[in-house]
Structures are given as structure tokens and as C-alpha cells.
Amino acid sequence: MKPGAVGGVGRRAALSAGAALSVAGLSGESAATELPLRERARRKGLLFGAAARSFNLRDDPAYAAAFARECGVLVTEWEAKWGPLRPTREEFSFGAVDALWQFARRHGLGFRGHALVWHEHMPRWIAGMENRAARGILEEHIRRVLARYPRAQSWDVVNEAIDLKDGRADGLRQTVWLRALGPTYVRDAFVLARAADPHTLLTYNDYGIEYEDRDSRAKRVAVLRLLESLRQQDAPVDVFGVQAHLNPARPFDPAALRGFLRGAAEMGFDIYITELDVHDRDLPADGARRDRIVADHAQAWLEAALSEPRVKAVFTWGLSDRYNWRNEVEWSRRRDGLPSRGLPLDQDLQPKPFWTAIARTLDGAEPRGR
Ligand code: G3I
């Protein structure tokens, strides 16, 4: 795809779409929808944004307009991962990420890259990578990607490095990078990213740490230990990313969440809520009931998270039910076949109670120091 081919809507068009949004706002929803989430966040020194795929923005001008209106940051949901980006050892397939970058630049959005190091969706050729070549391959990847998108708002440098099921004392997930480079690969990736771009904020991102069940509690301990060890290794990590794929069926304790986030904040990390959405697979089929449960749970969780002053950003993992990854994966897809309603805008790009829940938590948040 030619860079710049995505969503040719200008800011004016986005705002006029926004005006339509305020007129067509939900009946009974008190939060006036004329003030987009990005503005509500900005007023508190926070960031709001969402993950996107280039082809959705390219092929759907109304969606592109809603995205440009609501979001202050664009997150690369798929196309900056190794699988789509690195078809061969020699090739970098930048076209789709270029289009996302151009969209962000055209609409004045921050650009958040995801993810420089992850274990999933790696290209087949990586399996044949010799250990002695791994550092050079990683260094070239990070250097070339960050050079192409200079001064990005932030990057997920390492994503989901902890998996206690793999049985290591340090909790590290058995990945191709751990096997090739040893446990210091996490630190190494951050050092390489900082060398490649001294300006972008560097994030360690993980999931399964949002609730009070045994697994979540155990993973929190391991994640905090990893963050502490990165601090001790002087790894240039700026931000801890909490993915926040929420599930109303799981046990939530606001005080415990606040304590966990405080633990990371006291190590000197800012915190981002990086992939907020709600798993509604097992919720009632009725849309209004489901929307209420999604919104109430998200509001309670976000209020607890945003009560931590070092939480500086909220990014949802998609903006509208019209394009929701949950409808594409078997384990998350609803058994009744109804589409997920776990994102802020509905299939018609209208704000749902979830949108209002985010608006209220942003409006109620304490202003952040600049
Ligand atoms: O774009 C291609 C399309 O050309 C092709 O025809 C189609 C059929 O294979 O695949 C399309 O790519 C899909 C892509 O999403 C874009 O829709 C991939 O198959 C699919 O695997 C990919 O799934 C992504 C998934 O991560 C795996 O990378 C989801 O979009 C994305 O939302 C999801 O995001 C992850 C985060 O990276 C990490 N945290 C969890 C989160 C949810 O699983």
C-alpha cells in the first residue's frame, strides 16, 4: 500500500462527523458526546487513543473520521509486528505501517508502535535463526523500525515476557529471544531501542495482572520483579503497560489494583493502560444489558487505575465494535454468534455506555503534572 493511502479525511471532516456524533448521541446518556475522549484526556494531562489496522482506516472514511475525532494517539494493532513486517530475513514490509504513520501525522495524532519484541506471530524464518545471529537480527530490526518512525510517542519494546507456566524462577516466558540471547534479552531490547531513538518513550507491556485471582496475583509478583530487575540493570524503560483486557466475571479489588500500580510507580515508571477492552463472551445477549455490565465494570476498573497519579494514558484495543479482534478469535467469539460489544463505539460508530464510562473517568481524574 502506498504510504498515505489511508483514510484521506481531513480534520474538518472528522469534526463534522463528530458534530453528527453529538447530535446522534445516545438517548439517556448524560455525558455530552460533543467533547471527544482525546480532549477530555488532554484537559487532565492524560492521553487517550486506540489501536487500529491500516486497512480499516483506508477502506472506511466514516471510521477514519471517528478515529481522528476521538483519539489523540494511534496504536499499531497488527502491522508493526514481525509477522506482517518481516516476510523474510532481508525484507521490511513497511507499507501498512507507513500508512498508519501518515494517518497519525495528517491528523495530529501521536504514534504508538506495537511491538518490537513479542513471541507471537513471528515469521517462519525466525525459527531457523542461529543464536549467534540473533543479536544482530534484533539490533537491525529495532534500529530500522525506529529510524523509519522517528520520535514516535512510544513503543512497546517488549510485550508479554512473563509466563509462569514455563516454570522459570524469574517467570520469563520461553521464547526464541530468551533461548537465543538469555534472560538479559529484555534489558538488551530496551538498550537497543534507546540507542535507536532517544526520544520515544519505551514501554514494557503485559496482561493477566488486572484481577484478584491466584494467577493474576502470582503474575503481578513476577512482573514487578521483572520491572525491579530492569531498574537494577539500568534498562531505559520509561513506561509499564497494563493491557487491561477486562472481564467482568473475574474478581476485582480496587484497593489491590491501586497497590499493584503504586508498586510500579514507586520504581519510577509511568503507567499506561494499553489495550483496554471488555470480554463480553459470557454476558447476556441483550445489547442494553450487556452494554451496562461492560460500562459499569470498565468504569470501576478505570477509576481505580486512574486514581494512581502515574497512570498517564488510556488506549483501547480498537475503537468500535465494527472492527473488534474478539470477533476473529475462537476463544473470545460469543457462542451465540452475536458480535462483541466490548469497545467504546458501536457498529454504527455511535458512543455506547462504555464510551460514557471512559468519558466520566477521564472527567473525574485528577489533573496530571505536565
Ligand atoms: O490482514 C490479514 C489479512 O490480509 C488476511 O487475509 C487475514 C487472514 O489470515 O489475516 C489478516 O491478519 C490478521 C490480523 O489480526 C489483522 O486482522 C491476522 O490473521 C490475525 O492473527 C491478527 O490478529 C491480531 C492478534 O493480536 C495477533 O497478532 C489482532 O488483530 C490483534 O488485535 C491482537 O492483539 C493482541 C496484542 O498484539 C497483544 N495483546 C493481546 C491482543 C489481543 O490478542
TrEMBL record:
Entry keywords, A to Z: Carbohydrate metabolism, Glycosidase, Hydrolase, Polysaccharide degradation, Signal, Xylan degradation
PROSITE patterns found in the cross-reference section: GH10_1 (PS00591), GH10_2 (PS51760)
Enzymatic reactions: Endohydrolysis of (1->4)-beta-D-xylosidic linkages in xylans
Source domain of life: Bacteria
Matching Gene3D superfamilies: Glycosidases (3.20.20.80)
Listed EC numbers: 3.2.1.8
UniProt enzyme class: hydrolase
Every GH10 domain range: 31-361
Positions of the catalytic residues: E275 (nucleophile)
Coiled coil: none
Signal peptide residue numbers: none
Pfam family, one: Glyco_hydro_10
SUPFAM superfamilies named among the record's database cross-references: (Trans)glycosidases
Family, as annotated: Belongs to the glycosyl hydrolase 10 (cellulase F) family.
Protein name: Beta-xylanase
